[in-house]
Amino acid sequence: MKVAVLGCGGMGAIHAGIYASLANVQLTGVCDANRQLADTLAEQTGTVAYYSFDDMLANADFDAVSIALPTYLHKEYTLEAAKARKHIICEKPIALSLEDAREMMNACEENNVRLFVGHVVRFFPDYIHLKQTLDSGKLGRPAVAHASRIGAHPGSWFHDEKLSGGVIVDLMIHDLDFLRSCFGEVESIYALNAKQEELDYALVTLRFENGTIANVEANWGYPGPFHTKAEIAGSAGIVRANSLKSSSLQIVKNKASSDSTGSVVIPGSPGYRSPYELQLEHFIRSIEDGSEPIVTAADAYKALELALYARESAATGKAVYLKGGNAQ
């Protein structure tokens, strides 16, 4: 499988490095308008640097492309890649609006290419264990869940909610997607959101149609290390995960001065593979054999929908009630 990477910042560097290491993948190009970023990443991964997507489309041979650009550029380049008949692996969130997300999905369907969205939390061992324990029935009837995702403000374009979607759409969306994979569709959403110059904090309460209540916290502005926590409690037990306690090694990649993607934190242990590697390997396999991925474009759409409903609730001060997945 020949793959290219569009965007050479934090996430693009992770994607390119993984592709360069996979035995069944050939990295044929990396692209960024920032020539220094593109040249450096190309040298690190042994591939060719391009400075425009049009140039890469015209001169690089690839079957799939990772789009690791700021969120506000996802739609534009997904549409271009789909028209060029390239399979697409796009970083989350899929888009900033449901209309844009649907247009992206339709373009991929019309051009007979696959669209994958990087909701990588589904591939983190702690979260896999949480869901496996829930699905095993050991917890009994699920009742309450908590999830939090906390770190420093990434700065740059993330300050502009029109470009990033804010902490709910960009960060909390990981946990909204994961919890929906655990408990199904949401019945109601109530959200609070506090913002200052270097702070974007949100607290969201979800009631699922199966009766489970979930409290979800996301914070850009925490002065300490990035960390996540999650727990699921049922009638017969409780299971917890805490990234600060479960990891014997924590890798924090600081952003370069020219990198506007923010820091990328990969909590883990020397004994297991990067969740990003597991995710990309899984997506490549799905392209090769046509199988359904663990997280689909439709899942990414639903996660965005929940995030936007949460923003609506925070803005109005009222709960949003859903029936059959749609606001009432």
Structural summary, described in words:
With 328 residues, this protein is an alpha/beta fold. It has 2 domains: 2-119, 3-Layer(aba) Sandwich (Rossmann fold), CATH 3.40.50.720; 121-327, Dihydrodipicolinate Reductase, domain 2 (2-Layer Sandwich), CATH 3.30.360.10. It is built from 11 helices and 16 strands. It has helices at residues 10-21, 35-45, 53-59, 74-83, 98-110, 125-136, 161-164, 166-183, 243-246, 275-289, 297-316; strands at residues 2-6, 26-31, 49-50, 64-67, 87-91, 115-118, 142-151, 186-196, 199-208, 213-220, 227-234, 237-242, 249-253, 264-268, 320-323, 326-327. The strands form 3 sheets. An 8-stranded mixed β-sheet has the order 12-11-7-10-9-8-15-16. The protein has a 6-stranded parallel β-sheet with strand order 3-2-1-4-5-6, with helices on both faces.
CATH architectural arrangement of the largest domain: 2-Layer Sandwich
Number of domains: 2
Count of individual beta strands? 16
Number of helices: 11
* Morphology call: globular
pLDDT < 50 stretches: 248-258
How much is the average pLDDT?
Answer: 92
Q: Give the CATH level 1 class of the largest domain.
A: Alpha Beta
Spatial extent as radius of gyration: 19 Å
In whole angstroms, how far apart are the ends? 45 Å
Q: Give the strand order, joined by hyphens, for the main sheet.
A: 12-11-7-10-9-8-15-16
Predict the CATH topology of the largest domain: Dihydrodipicolinate Reductase, domain 2
The helix/strand series, from N terminus to C terminus, equals EHEHEHEHEHEHEHHEEEEEHEEHHEE
How large is the share of residues in beta strands? 25-35%
Tell me roughly what share of residues is in helical segments. 25-40%
